[in-house]
Amino acid sequence: MRMKKKEKLMNSNLSTIKEGNAEFYIHTTDKDSIPSKSMIVFYNQKMEINRDVSNLAIMAYDRVYNQHPLIIVDSMAASGISSIRILKDCKNVKKIYINDINPIAVDLINKNLSLNGIYNHPAHIEVSRKEANYLFSEIAQNSYTSSNNRPQKPNVISIDPFGTPNLYIDGAFKAIQKVDGLLCITATDTAVLFGVRPKSCIRKYMSKPLHTEFCKEIGARILIYFISRIANVNKMGIIPLLTFYSSHFLRVFCLTFKNRKKISQYFKDYGYLIHCNNCGYYSTFRDNILGLPNHCPICKEFNHIEYAGPLWVNEIHDLRFINEMILLNQEFQYRNKKRISKLLNLIQEEIKMHPFYYNIHKLSKNLKLSNIPKLDTILTSIRRKGYKISRTHFDFLSIKTNMDIISIKNMLLEL
Ligand SMILES: C[S@@+](CC[C@H](N)C(=O)[O-])C[C@H]1O[C@@H](n2cnc3c(N)ncnc32)[C@H](O)[C@@H]1O
Q1: Ligand 1: which residue has its CA nearest to atom 26?
Q2: What residues contact residue 316 under an 8 Å CB cut-off, 6+ apart?
């Protein structure tokens, strides 16, 4: 343990916090510090919405896609708050692995289970201090070696690391139920995925990002592409059920499948993005990289065309799943209920819309407009002209539409 952490630990008492239906301890010195690796045990109050959404997502999965009792792996549990919350809210949990590599976290997890009276819970609870990949390989190994009465593989695995999840995805695919398993993956290395550090993105995710006005969605699609390719290596595929961005993190929930023909069919979901940083045109291409245009089809410029990818170019959410989450959000009284409702409604709008979006402020600035038209006025105007349009949760000042860039600019000038 690093000296600073040891000193902090010696000076720290425990404080209690309430989140959802759970109460839990964190170290008092961690309570007011900026969330970071140097906390005694990690806790980020701003991630409460992430844990709310994760709870709703697991319960929606249980209702819509799951046929069995739930076996959940919370591979990076910190205080254990996510595990405790799902144990409190979901009635179908048969077993849960609550794991963290930090020994003080494991001690806190045990204290938090007692505080919430969870030891009387009917689910089998296994608390461990293991490296996440070691835990995944143990779970995978157990399911291979017990010939009779093969243990059911986990149907839900959560990966919530500091920074990139890239190192843990292969292990998770080896451990999870191959058909209709739910993987929940967080990435907080947004500077990498959003194109501020492009070389790191190529190294970590094997894909070129782009730092444009819609870089958040590009980053999300690179992450899904990467998860899907690692699934393919493991003879599996994925269907994204929900992809969301909030306060500097991305979280993807995806369903596993195992069918060679279907996996090959899903290759058409890998593609590229072309963007012209002169006129703002963009489009996705399902071709390979050699088929990409070398100049902008709108302004005909050669020097301003740039690309991102490979990335996922198909749907990033599943309507049935989102609808179920909306219903569940109405049933539960989470503190973030209103924010979650807004988030899920925007996500619902994004389904069946084109990838990526136009930022109205950026376009208005380029057109030197003195007054920026209201988003509602733009939505009505584009809809009236017969085009598809929606807002997006990635950026509240942007629109998704199939209207072309020239018509959008003309319309903004008219408004
Ligand atoms: C971002 S925190 C997790 C937050 C937690 N899921 C929550 O909702 O509060 C990351 C946690 O992963 C743990 N960790 C980091 N690397 C790990 C690894 N390789 N295996 C297992 N745990 C790890 C850290 O000790 C830390 O507690």
Answers
A1: 78
A2: 220, 221, 224, 240, 243, 350
- Going by alpha carbons, the residue nearest to atom 10 of ligand 1 is 161
Task: Quote the distance between the C-alpha of residue 298 and its chain's center.
Answer: 34
Give the pairing type, strands 282-285 and 249-257.
unpaired
Question: How high is the pLDDT of residue 8?
Answer: 67
Residue 358's φ and ψ, nearest 5 degrees, are: -110, 130
Q: What global pTM score does this model have?
A: 0.96
Distance from C-alpha of 152 to C-alpha of 140, rounded to nearest angstrom: 10
Which atom, in ligand 1's list, is nearest to the CA of 161? Answer: 10
Report which of 106, 104, 128 is spatially closest to residue 30, judged by C-alpha positions. 104
Quote the ligand 1 centre to 162 CA distance (angstroms): 7
- Provide the token pair at 138: 């143990």
Residues at CB less than 6 angstroms from ligand 1: 42-43, 47, 51, 75-79, 81-82, 100-102, 105, 131-132, 160-162
Domain residue ranges in the chain: 45-267+318-347, 359-415
State which ligand 1 atom lies nearest to the alpha carbon of 41.
27
Do residues 202 and 192 make contact, with C-beta atoms less than 8 angstroms apart?
Answer: no
Which residue's CA is minimally distant from atom 12 of ligand 1? 76
What does the chain come to in residues?
415
The CA 77 to ligand 1 mean position distance, Å, reads: 6
Instruction: Write the pLDDT tens digit of every residue in 63-101.
Output: 999 999 999 999 999 999 999 999 999 999 999 999 999
Which architecture, in CATH terms, is 359-415? 2-Layer Sandwich (3.30)
Distance 378 CA to ligand 1 centre (A): 43
Q: Which CATH number fits domain 45-267+318-347: 3.40.50.150, 2.40.50.100, 1.20.1540.10, 3.30.565.40?
A: 3.40.50.150
Structure-token pair, residue 361: 């402020």
In this predicted structure, the answer to whether residue 401 has a pLDDT above a threshold of 80 is yes
For residue 267, how many other CB atoms are within 10 A of its CB? 12
Task: Report how far residue 338's alpha carbon sits from residue 341's, in angstroms, rounded to the nearest whole number.
Answer: 5
Q: Which ligand 1 atom sits nearest the alpha carbon of residue 100?
A: 22
CA-closest residue to ligand 1 atom 27: 78
Rounded to 5 degrees, φ, ψ at 142 are -60, -40
